[in-house]
Amino acid sequence: MSNEQIQQKVEALLAQMTLEEKAAQMVQVPYTVAGREESLRWARLGAGSFLHVLGDDAREVQQTALKESRLGIPVIFGIDAIHGHGLNQDAAIFPSQLACACSWDPAVAEEMGRVTAREVATDGLHWTFSPVCCLGRDTRWGRIDETFGEDPYLSGEMTYGIVRGYQGDSLDAPDSILACAKHYIGYGEAVGARDAVDTQMTYRKMKEVFVPPFQRAVDAGCATFMTAYGSIDGTPFTADPKTMKTILRDEMGFDGFVVTDWNNCQSLLTQQFVAADIGEASILSAEAGNDMMMTTLDFYDAAIRAVREGRLDEKVLDDAVRHILTVKFRMDLFGKPEKAGIPGCIGCEEHRQAAYRAGQRSITLLKNNGALPLRDVKKVAVIGQNADDIQSQYGDWTYLTHPNSETARPPRRPYVTVKEGFEQLCEAHGAQCVYHHGCAVRPLPPEVIAMIEGPVLADPVAENIRQQSMRRMPPRDDIPGAVAAAKDADAIVLVVGDTIDQHGEYKDRGNLDLSGEQMALYRALRALNIPLTVVLVSSKPLCIGEIAETADAVIVAFNGGQYGGLAVAEAAFGVFNPSGRLPITFPAHSGQLPVYYNSLPGWHGGRYMDLPRTPVYAFGEGMGYAPFSYANLVFDAAALTASVDVTNAGDVPGTEVVQVYMHDLVASVIRPVKQLIAFTRVDLAPGETKTVTFRLRREDFSLVNREEKRIVEPGEFDLFIGHSSRDEDLLRTRFAL
Ligand code: BGC
Questions:
Q1: pLDDT digits over 463-476, tens only?
Q2: How far does the centroid of ligand 1 lie from the alpha carbon of residue 261, in Å?
Q3: Quick check: 462 pLDDT over 90?
Q4: Cβ(505) to ligand 1 under 6 A?
Q5: What are phi and psi of 348, to 5 degrees?
Q6: Is the Cβ–Cβ distance between 129 and 402 less than 8 Å?
Q7: Cα of 154 from ligand 1 centre, angstroms
């Protein structure tokens, strides 16, 4: 259908809709909260969308809407399928967005999006609340794992890839789903990285730093946006027409529909106190440009009343409904209300292979003094709770963390933990593999343990929680046991990290040191003087300065998905040559935060007197088993082409991620000390040299000026090309534009 035909259909349908039906179309019902009966009632009223409902329950809602609502407008179902269709127990589970970003490869994101779309569509659903385009600049934030890291450009390229993957070539394809760029905007920039509080933001900063990844979502055709919980200079984003209309629609060119985040409309009243009642909150939300209200069911009555009382123009509702219906027609929902998907594809071999490849590509080797790859080992000791904890390996937003029912669901095979990966690889290499958990990643206080292990509780809810906690009891610390298991090994692999209880919504951390006795465990194992590799299975960078200094090798896996553990073992044994690079900085200390490479220059050293200036690992860092060297940086300023010779100086094939940064020497606003503007992956055989050429654009050197306009200011620039964001890894040339 052409755009004109769609618009005609939208107008014809809108003309038939009553005020009530328009208000209902703007409501998104949380199935798990509302329950079945209430959800079906909303379907009859003509609610526009439902979230968190799968399979037959979703089908029942859809059939009710089609057959029992007056106009039979199909509903769209949204779900948080953010690294695979993870809330479905059978789905292929991919690495988290952060882990995926370590690939520095939009094609990996695209494949993850494609597989997810097929699986979500096969469940009859239409829409994933993904990707997260927020930047992860202050790693105390609980949702760092959901981001593509700290950099606007890398995050934008990965966003572009994943949105293309979700939406495919056409929204009406049986296996395409709607993407949702979230959380627009600045969610990660909350003060002190405290989830969902006030945001450190101005419009200029917003446009320069935070809009670019969202702009790439728009460029990729992203059909929906979700708003953020935060605020700008005292105005909640939910109530800010400049953010939602002027910037998003007029400047960025977005033409889909906007959904609020969880209860944002109601929160204007209950959390942010800028509305006296739900009527005011509904008027503010609708007028600001929120087309659909996630979970604020009271919006329905309030909006109807506000229109009847003349406090809200019905045209505001018309616009919102237009946006929603346009997307529904573009999806051909009226012809095919249920996505067909690809029957039988959920968790199929092909999809699991894609998750496996993504897991390999996310492995980032940060240090290696020759301990890796493992060779001629007779016995490998794998130590650490996270070496054998599938929930930690999966991370957030899977059926293990967001169960639909009261009882936690047991992990479903196939998956491979780090321990199991080493068992497989050791067997193949004729080596013995021993495992010991060593200590709890996050030990519970003694009184909590006593309660969990105590007598049955009278209150059924408390008893249910007790039983669930019992199933998830962290192991008891036993460092001597781990030392005994490891003492005659040829190599030790210690897995450290965090657990699902230490990240996610409401779970920001002020202290990113390794929790529990993990450092004591490390030191005890280090004292054995056996080659020691430390692996991080975590949601985010943690403070591992001492480990970075004294371990023999360091691998970052983050939340690597169902085969993340196998990928770690294969990387360690050199089955493949790891090529991940950090999309985010590793701080030396929690007190250093926020720390990111593209900071603004300032006086007085820009450091705390009692902390180092530099991070432990910088943005862009990562190595493989072959070193790369750079030479002959040539830049043609007229053509804006840069080339450089990259050589694999090692004896195994390897992949280098060639990174291009720029710095604007003098500008009307303060520019970052360095800004990534391009990158590419290059495969190199041992000894091979390739000339890598980048075609840059003038916009790559642009800034957002004080009038909030993106412009290119003439002047001198430095161009850097090399291996990471560290100065010592970069060749530099200066030119005038
Ligand atoms: C989160 C969103 C998510 C939504 C629906 C909110 O609490 O902030 O990221 O998409 O819930 O589950």
A1: 877 887 787 789 99
A2: 6
A3: no
A4: yes
A5: -70, 165
A6: no
A7: 23
321: which residues sit within 8 A by CB, 6+ positions away?
14, 17, 22, 25, 26, 291
The two counts, helices (H) then strands (E), for the chain are 23, 25
Backbone φ and ψ of 458, nearest 5°: -70, -40
Ligand 1 close to Cβ of residue 396 (< 6 A): no
- Give residue-wise pLDDT tens across range 59-89: 999 999 999 999 999 999 999 999 999 999 9
Query: Residue written as tokens 């495919």?
Result: 168
Neighbouring residues of 460: CB distance < 8 A, sequence distance ≥ 6 = none
Q: Which of 262, 296, 401 to mutate to test the pocket of ligand 1 (most atoms within 8 A of CB)?
A: 262
Does ligand 1 come within 6 angstroms of the Cβ of 146? no
Type of residue numbered 31? Y
SS3 179: coil
Q: Decide: pTM greater than 0.70.
A: yes
Atom of ligand 1 nearest to the CA of 180: 10
Using an 8 Å Cβ cutoff, are 244 and 290 in contact?
A: yes
Residue 615 identity: P
Is the C-beta atom of 506 inside 6 A of ligand 1?
A: no
Can you point out the beta strands (E) in 398-542? 432-436, 491-497, 532-537
Are 203 and 242 spatial neighbours (Cβ–Cβ below 8 Å)?
A: yes
d(CA 268, ligand 1 centre) in Å: 17
